[in-house]
């Protein structure tokens, strides 16, 4: 059976749709190296004493607020878990990405046996940054991240016990889960994952990565300006 020919208008619509899907969506194509738009304010780190790898920095509240990613920043949100803290972190990442016009993709893990493979899939997309939300991912990230030192990772609301220079974390007293082998922190408090704190944590962490302060833990007990 012969298919009916498309009208000129219909054909134009198909072509336009195809062009629209390809424009800005194809991460296989190179793009300008991302950079920070704006600068960290005084008190984010001590310029006279650069933090050592794996050190904890306690930035002055709001010292991260003027830093944004350059246009076309590619981020994969890697998430696992349906608990309230994880949902709050996911919402914060998505709202930040929408506000800053970040090109965001999401890799959601629903099977515990798929954690490592999901992290590999996120890396395989070749983003500028992989943002992790959910305690369930920590052990998988501890396995994967040392093997991909050119890929930047941001862990929000938890941290790795022995992070490499490409893993930056944002934590506070009510968070700081470090993996099953170490158990839950005695100060862990799900109620501390408020919308305001999660939003500040995402901005502080991305500001640190964009500004070159990676491989550290950014501590945001005090986050209100």
Sum up the structure in keywords.
single chain; 5 helices; seven-stranded parallel β-sheet; 9 strands; alpha/beta; 225 residues; two-stranded antiparallel sheet
Describe the structure.
The protein contains five helices and nine strands. The protein has helices spanning 8-22, 84-100, 115-124, 138-144, 195-210; strands at residues 36-37, 56-57, 68-69, 74-80, 103-109, 129-133, 153-156, 167-171, 217-219. The termini are far apart. The relative contact order is 0.17.
Give the structure's gist in a few sentences:
With 225 residues, the chain is of the alpha/beta class. It contains 5 helices and 9 strands. The strands form 2 sheets. It has a 7-stranded parallel β-sheet with strand order 2-9-8-7-6-4-5, with helices on both faces.
Structural class: alpha/beta
Q: What share of residues is helical? A: 25-40%
DSSP summary, beta strand count: 9
**How much beta, percentage-wise?**
15-25%
Topology:
Blueprint: H1 8-22, E1 36-37, E2 56-57, E3 68-69, E4 74-80, H2 84-100, E5 103-109, H3 115-124, E6 129-133, H4 138-144, E7 153-156, E8 167-171, H5 195-210, E9 217-219
Parallel strand pairs: 2-9, 4-5, 4-6, 6-7, 7-8, 8-9
Antiparallel strand pairs: 1-3
């Amino acid at each position: 059976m012969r298919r009916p020919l498309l009208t000129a208008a219909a054909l134009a619509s198909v072509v336009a749709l195809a062009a629209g899907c390809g424009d800005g969506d194809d991460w296989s194509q190179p793009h300008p190296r991302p950079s920070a738009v704006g600068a960290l304010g005084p008190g984010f780190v001590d310029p006279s004493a650069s933090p050592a790898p794996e050190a904890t920095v306690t930035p002055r509240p709001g010292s991260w607020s003027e830093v944004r990613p350059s246009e076309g920043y590619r981020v994969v949100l890697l998430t696992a878990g349906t608990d309230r803290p994880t949902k709050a972190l996911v919402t914060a990442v998505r709202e930040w990405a929408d506000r800053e016009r970040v090109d965001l993709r999401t890799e959601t893990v629903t099977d515990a046996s798929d954690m490592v493979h999901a992290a590999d899939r996120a890396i395989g997309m070749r983003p500028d940054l992989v943002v992790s939300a959910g305690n369930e991912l920590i052990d998988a990230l501890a396995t994967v991240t040392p093997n991909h030192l050119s890929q930047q990772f941001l862990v929000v609301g938890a941290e790795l016990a022995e992070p490499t220079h490409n893993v930056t974390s944002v934590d506070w007293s009510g968070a700081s889960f470090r993996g099953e082998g170490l158990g839950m922190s005695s100060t862990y408090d799900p109620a501390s994952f408020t919308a305001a704190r999660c939003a500040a944590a995402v901005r502080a962490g991305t500001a640190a990565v964009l500004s070159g302060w990676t491989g550290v833990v950014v501590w945001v007990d005090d986050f209100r300006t």
